[in-house]
């Protein structure tokens, strides 16, 4: 008997239990044969022959893979074992003890309701055999088979419960290992993206801005000098070199742009974000005339939208949400509004918001000179808004 599914290898405990069941059944058959011979039973030959036949049928089923894979094959095998056991019980009262290992076989190989029915039938057969051989009705004739069946049922059900718990823990451990690997990969990806964003900001705010300033100064110097001045040609070449290097710096900034912004505008990236959000229905809209934004602005607005929408999905319990990108003359505003359960912003400590990520969003906005606000009340939904002033060059 195998107490584990065929697809999984047997554990040491399962092997021991299976060997104990085999030994118990064969030992009881040997005991019945020995008692028949020692007691000069007139049916000793039948007892020995039926015991040997029962052992052979049992061994054939144990070694047959189909018995462990098919409920139909297991049922046929148990029917054969039961028929031989019933014949043994008819000629020897000692056959009653074989009922105990049969209980375990029936409970293991059959579905629970059929297993319980088979145990009840086996117990009734054992009681009937004992009464037929003893010729008298005693409490022991009923208590022995019934208690044995009850012990077998309790043991098998308890073991199955422990096995299911063990399987759940194994699956949980495997899930935790997989989640840990995914988290590590996500952290590496987030670190790469964060470094790309940092480099893009640094190049844009320092190198690109410096080259742009140099170009403007050279242009002013070129205009201030007479056209035939010897230095004009050198200034023009320097301005062209600054222009080429500025274009190269901007190409670097574009190459470091997050993947969500590589194949379209900020509005397109936000549209994809809303359409792919799980949980609540999310609508995206654009107000005002769209205009190109510096890469750091697009990255900051996209990351804030992602973080705010993630909070809506995980914490708000909202049915609907809306993201609005508004372009104005001197600023751009992003609003994320939901109809969820809301919370008390005054009770959210900086850096200890329990997973809402508000300090990170606020830091992104303030790093670009923007304003970040949160409006919410318990049961009234939440509105997150960030406003970034547009630079003159944008």
From TrEMBL:
Broadest EC class? transferase
Q: Which residues cross the membrane?
A: 44-62, 74-92, 112-133, 140-162
Q: What is its main location?
A: cytoplasm
Q: Name one GO molecular function term.
A: kinase activity
> What InterPro entries does the record point to?
HATPase_C_sf, HATPase_dom, His_kinase_dom, Sensor_HK_TwoCompSys, Sig_transdc_His_kin-like_C, Sig_transdc_His_kin_sub3_dim/P, Sig_transdc_His_kinase_ChrS
What's the EC number here? Answer: 2.7.13.3
Q: Which Gene3D superfamilies match?
A: 1.20.5.1930, Histidine kinase-like ATPase, C-terminal domain
Q: Catalytic activity, per the record?
A: ATP + protein L-histidine = ADP + protein N-phospho-L-histidine
- Which segments constitute the Histidine kinase domain? 301-392
A single Pfam family it belongs to is HisKA_3
Which keywords does the record carry? 4Fe-4S, Cytoplasm, Iron, Iron-sulfur, Kinase, Membrane, Metal-binding, Signal, Transferase, Transmembrane, Transmembrane helix, Two-component regulatory system
Which cofactors, by name?
[4Fe-4S] cluster
PROSITE patterns given for it? Answer: HIS_KIN
Its annotated compartments are: Cytoplasm
Q: What does this protein do?
A: Member of the two-component regulatory system NreB/NreC involved in the control of dissimilatory nitrate/nitrite reduction in response to oxygen. NreB functions as a direct oxygen sensor histidine kinase which is autophosphorylated, in the absence of oxygen, probably at the conserved histidine residue, and transfers its phosphate group probably to a conserved aspartate residue of NreC. NreB/NreC activates the expression of the nitrate (narGHJI) and nitrite (nir) reductase operons, as well as the putative nitrate transporter gene narT.
Protein name, as recorded: Oxygen sensor histidine kinase NreB
């Amino acid at each position: 008997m195998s107490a584990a599914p065929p697809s999984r290898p047997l554990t040491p405990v399962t092997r021991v239990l299976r060997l104990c069941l085999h030994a118990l059944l064969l030992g009881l058959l040997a005991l019945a044969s020995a008692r028949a011979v020692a007691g000069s039973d007139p049916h000793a030959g039948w007892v020995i022959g039926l015991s040997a036949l029962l052992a052979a049928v049992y061994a054939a089923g144990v070694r047959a893979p189909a018995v462990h894979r098919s409920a139909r094959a297991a049922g046929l095998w148990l029917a054969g074992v039961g028929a031989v056991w019933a014949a043994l019980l008819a000629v020897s009262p000692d056959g009653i003890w074989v009922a105990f290992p049969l209980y375990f076989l029936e409970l293991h190989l059959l579905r629970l309701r059929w297993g319980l029915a088979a145990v009840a039938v086996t117990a009734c057969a054992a009681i009937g055999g004992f009464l037929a051989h003893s010729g008298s009705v005693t409490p022991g004739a009923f208590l022995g088979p019934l208690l044995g069946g009850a012990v077998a049922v309790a043991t098998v059900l308890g073991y199955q419960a422990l096995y299911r718990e063990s399987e759940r823990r194994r699956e949980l451990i495997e899930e935790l290992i997989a989640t840990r690997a995914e988290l590590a990969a996500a952290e590496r990806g987030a670190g790469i993206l964060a470094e790309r964003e940092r480099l893009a900001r640094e190049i844009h705010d320092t190198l690109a801005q410096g080259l742009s300033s140099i170009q403007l100064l050279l242009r002013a110097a070129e205009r201030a000098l007479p056209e035939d001045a010897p230095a004009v040609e050198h200034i023009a070449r320097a301005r062209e070199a600054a222009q080429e290097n500025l274009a190269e710096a901007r190409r670097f900034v574009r190459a470091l742009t997050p993947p969500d912004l590589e194949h379209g505008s900020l509005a397109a990236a936000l549209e994809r974000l809303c359409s792919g959000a799980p949980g609540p229905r999310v609508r995206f809209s654009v107000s005002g005339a769209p205009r190109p934004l510096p890469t750091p602005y697009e990255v900051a607005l996209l990351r804030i939208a992602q973080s705010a929408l993630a909070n809506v999905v995980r914490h708000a319990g909202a049915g609907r949400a809306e993201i609005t990108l508004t372009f104005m003359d001197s600023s751009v505003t992003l609003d994320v509004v939901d109809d969820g359960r809301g919370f008390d912003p005054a009770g959210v400590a900086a850096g200890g918001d329990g997973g809402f990520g508000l300090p990170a969003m606020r830091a992104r906005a303030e790093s670009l000179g923007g304003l970040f606000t949160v409006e919410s009340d318990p049961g009234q939904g939440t509105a997150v808004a960030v406003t970034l002033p547009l630079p003159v060059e944008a």
